[in-house]
Amino acid sequence: MSRPVIGIVGNSYLINDEYPAQACGTFNLDAVRYVCDAIPVILPADPALISVAEALETCAGFIFPGARPNVHPSEYGHDETEAHGAFDRARDGLALPLIREAVARGVPVLGLCRGFQELAVAFGSTLHPEIRDLPGRMNHRMPPDGTLEEKFELRHDVTLTPGGRFAQIFGGTTVRTNTLHGQGIDEPGARVVIEGYAPDGTPEAIHIADAPGFAMGVQWHPEWNAGADPVSRPLFEAFARAAHGLARAA
């Protein structure tokens, strides 16, 4: 049996600050190829280049990875402020409707960092523009200095709902994760079920209630060291089982 195709939503950026490009982190590609045993395909983050229908015809699952730009606050009914940072409206235009339609059809969806926030916003959540400014919250942002290993090091625990979907995947109710994000969920949408929290109360793991397929997201970056990390690997394996199952049924 051929390996299923997993679509990884890319990011637009400038090479040498002038040449437009679409790409995604190699760690995401490696996680799909070596942990999920699937074919990674980068989807351009622009609805002018690929439609939701075309993406769904091509892929047996989708990963929505992290990115520097944030979801535009108009997508959840808030006004834009300087604290919201940079945006990528083209990615918003593809990712949010693709998430909704994929979830409706039971196509597996895994959101990572910004992708976690996209999954939350797609189902009615609002976001804090800068959670480190909230009383009692820690700074979840990427450390400004150090090697990649130091920036992606495991920095805090996440406490999971006993008996929940994440606890079943990880085989316990506490996991250790990295943290490299500035925004976070404010008010969750009606179908957004929060199953994991950082020690400061920041939501870290969600699933979509009543989704007919795999529809989960984490606020951290499990793609880092995905093949060896005891938390990352089972998460990608659970996503892969859903994608392989859909591919076999097609």
From TrEMBL:
Catalytic reactions on record: 4-(gamma-L-glutamylamino)butanoate + H2O = 4-aminobutanoate + L-glutamate
Gene Ontology CC annotations of this record: cytosol
Keywords: Hydrolase
Name of protein: gamma-glutamyl-gamma-aminobutyrate hydrolase
Lineage of origin: Bacteria, Pseudomonadati, Pseudomonadota, Alphaproteobacteria, Rhodobacterales
Biological process (GO), any one: polyamine catabolic process
Family membership noted in the UniProt record: Belongs to the peptidase C26 family.
Gene designation: puuD
Function: Involved in the breakdown of putrescine via hydrolysis of the gamma-glutamyl linkage of gamma-glutamyl-gamma-aminobutyrate.
Catalytic activity, EC: 3.5.1.94
Superkingdom, natural source: Bacteria
SUPFAM superfamilies for the chain: Class I glutamine amidotransferase-like (SSF52317)
Molecular-function annotations in GO: gamma-glutamyl-gamma-aminobutyrate hydrolase activity
Recorded metabolic or biological pathway in which this protein acts: Amine and polyamine degradation; putrescine degradation; 4-aminobutanoate from putrescine: step 4/4
InterPro entries: Class_I_gatase-like, Peptidase_C26, PuuD-like
